[in-house]
Amino acid sequence: MPDRFWSKVAIRGIDDCWEWRAGRRPSGYGMFAHEGKIWGAHRFAFTLMIGEIPEGKFVCHTCDNPPCCNPGHLVPGTARENAHDAAAKHRLARSHEPGWDGLFQAITGKQLVSGGAWGPGVE
Ligand SMILES: [Zn+2]
Fold this sequence. Notes:
By secondary structure, this protein is α+β, with helices and mostly antiparallel strands. The chain has 4 helices and 6 strands. The protein starts with a helix and ends in a 5-residue tail after the last strand.
């Protein structure tokens, strides 16, 4: 199932935006059907790689790019919170957390080459 999801995502470098390539809402958010529900693709990516979305929280983009599904660009926030403040706190931080490269490796089964770029075979 994760493969069915990630095959629709243009996976790039660890800090790049990974845009959803399948159906999108007019707002630009990706749509993914899973177990009879339509998910926001970025919400699905967050749930898959980071964990359950905290009750009452939205998944915000640190990159302001709605179709992006890079888990490193996704942070939980509330409607009341300024998404930009929440995002700024996390900006560029997550991809440098210990264990993060292992998480990315798990997505594609490919190893990250030094400098944070993907090895050959990943678009
Ligand atoms: Zn992004």
